[in-house]
Amino acid sequence: MASLIKMATSVFVKGREESDLP
Predict the structure, then answer these.
(1) Region annotation Disordered: residue ranges (predicted)?
(2) Residue 3 zone, left/alpha/beta (φ > 0; ψ -120 to 50; rest)
(3) pLDDT of residue 22
(4) What is the pLDDT of residues 1-22, one digit of tens each?
């Protein structure tokens, strides 16, 4: 269960970082 949440958080953060890039 914890790994699922961690995976979702990682993907969400990665998406935000890519979105912030120019």
Answers:
(1) 1-22
(2) alpha
(3) 66
(4) 799 999 999 998 887 877 776 6
> H-type helices in the chain, by residue range?
2-20
Looking at the whole model, is its pTM more than 0.85? no
Give me the pLDDT at residue 21, please.
64
User: How many Å apart are CA 12 and CA 9, to the nearest integer?
Assistant: 5
Burial per residue of 1-22, b for 16 or more beta-carbon CB atoms within 10 angstroms, e otherwise: eeeeeeeeeeeeeeeeeeeeee
Spatial distance between the Cα atoms of 6 and 9, rounded to a whole number of angstroms = 5
Joined together, the tokens standing for residue 22 give 């120019």
